[in-house]
Specification:
Growth Hormone, Chain: A
């Protein structure tokens, strides 16, 4: 009770410090904002755990070739990407006394916890049987993740129509995500290196712990989150027509199309960095075991510390301007890491910290801009899609991550990488280039795409006013 009150007081102070009155009646209650943070903590246990460790487990622990591991990773994420919009359409059509989205968060919680642990477990299989097992467990994990995560993400657009309040929600979400990523980065290596002499058993234990944490946090979300009351019933098209019509509207919603492009390139590029951290520290730096932990926690720590700064900057200027600032930090970090001739752990930490500052801004700003495009589409096209916007955003992100995994696997084979062996200078240079130049290119592309992004706080307020006027007339008609 005392810890909860203290944390609540911290969040209250956090909100007030950035000019957001969290006690004002029209604003969302503190319990809802805390629930959003806790939910993303749970989801990021799974998301960051797979992003940071699973590719390494496939190649260096299970002994699967990098290309085969990349194909499996891509196939699972492509399946996930295809499944996400379907979940979005189903969630948009769901009507229960518990809300549209909470039932799906509950349904997916236990399967996700189980599948996460299984993804890090080899029951003694080899060859084709092991490949089939890995493919099955990874697809199982991605399916369960989508069942809960798409409805959870959709809550952001449904809970509030205020652009600044959504920025605060995105900040709370990223605060939870940062704590989740930090927990994974600290607990994962600690469990693997300390609790078990067997690396394979250590990763399985870490998967079990992560699965339990995820289950507990999502059950908490289901208990505390409350959805707004439903408005007038909306007539839907036939299921597949509803799904297909969104693709057409996507290309007519300019801001949403921009966000989709940026989501794809940033997901593709930045994950190239995180997936190679373990390889970089093990082979390029030849750092002592455990040294990679500091690099792994840099991004979540930066996210936790800088959430208020990114929210403040976005609210005082614009979300587009804040993105440009974040891009400057990230680009400087990636470029300096590539150009630096000193393979020294301390210097590497410094350069990675610059990249982490930038990427922390991307998380807050991306999920703050995305829900604003819902109102743009409703005003311009006359149709409101909440769950489908987030479902297709997840589709874009996970398709990019799937392609990323395949590229990582093929690239490692192409540069002559051999697991658990001394690498050639050409291979070491290839690992460095993969984890720096590709993210740098992604950051540059995102700047070009968002340079003319049209929605700021003033424009969003105009959109909300126009929608309010339409809704006031509709009942009379």
């Amino acid at each position: 009770m005392g810890q909860g009150a203290s944390f609540g007081a911290y969040i209250q102070t956090f909100g007030n410090s950035i000019g957001v009155d969290m006690s004002s009646a029209p604003k969302l209650p503190l319990s809802t904002k805390l629930g959003f943070a806790v939910g993303d903590f749970g989801f990021n246990i799974v998301w960051q755990g797979t992003a940071l460790f699973l590719m390494y487990v496939y190649t260096d622990v299970f002994g699967i070739s990098p290309t085969i591991a990349g194909i499996i990773y891509m196939a699972a994420l492509v399946w996930d990407a295809v499944f996400d919009p379907i979940v979005g359409v189903i969630a948009d059509r769901t009507r229960t006394r518990w809300g549209r989205y909470r039932p799906w968060i509950f349904i997916g919680a236990l399967p996700m916890a189980i599948s996460y642990a299984l993804a890090f477990w080899n029951p003694g299989l080899t060859g084709v049987a092991l490949i089939a097992w890995v493919a099955f467990t990874h697809c199982f994990l991605r399916t369960a993740f989508a069942l809960s995560n798409i409805p959870f993400s959709s809550l952001q657009a449904r809970l509030s129509g205020d652009s600044k309040e959504r920025t605060t929600l995105a900040g709370m979400r990223m605060l939870g995500a940062g704590v989740g990523g930090l927990s994974v980065a600290l607990l994962g290596p600690a469990i693997v290196h300390s609790l078990s002499a067997d690396e394979a058993q250590g990763y399985f234990l870490a998967g079990i712990v992560g699965g339990v944490l995820t289950l507990v946090t999502l059950l908490y979300v289901v208990l505390v989150m409350r959805e707004p009351e439903e408005g007038p019933a909306v007539k839907h098209e036939a299921f597949w027509g509803d799904l297909g019509s969104f693709f057409v509207q996507l290309f007519r919603n300019g801001p949403l199309a921009r966000i989709f492009i940026v989501l794809v390139v940033v997901s593709l590029a930045l994950t190239m960095f995180s997936k190679n951290i373990l390889y970089y520290f093990k082979y390029v730096l030849e750092a002592p075991p455990g040294s990679e932990s500091i690099a792994l926690i840099m991004t979540p720590v930066a996210l936790i510390l800088l959430v208020p700064a990114w929210i403040l900057l976005a609210n005082r200027t614009s979300k587009r301007t804040a993105w440009m600032v974040a891009s400057a930090f990230a680009a400087t970090g990636y470029a300096s890491l590539y150009l630096n001739p000193v393979r020294e752990v301390g210097v590497t930490y410094l350069m990675m910290s610059l990249a982490s500052i930038g990427s922390s801004g991307f998380g807050v700003l991306m999920w703050s801009m995305l829900p604003d495009t819902v109102e743009w589409g409703e005003v311009k096209l006359g149709v409101r899609h909440e769950a489908k916007v987030f479902g297709f955003s997840a589709f874009a992100q996970k398709a990019a991550l799937g392609v990323n995994a395949l590229i990582v696997g093929i690239s490692l084979d192409a540069i002559g990488y051999v697991p658990n062996q001394h690498q050639t200078p050409e291979t070491l240079g290839g690992i460095t280039a993969i984890m720096t130049l590709v993210p740098l290119a992604g950051v540059i592309i995102s700047v070009l795409v968002l340079w003319r992004y049209p929605i700021d706080a003033k424009r969003h307020a105009e959109l909300q006013a126009e929608l309010a006027a339409r809704r006031a007339v509709a009942p009379a008609e």
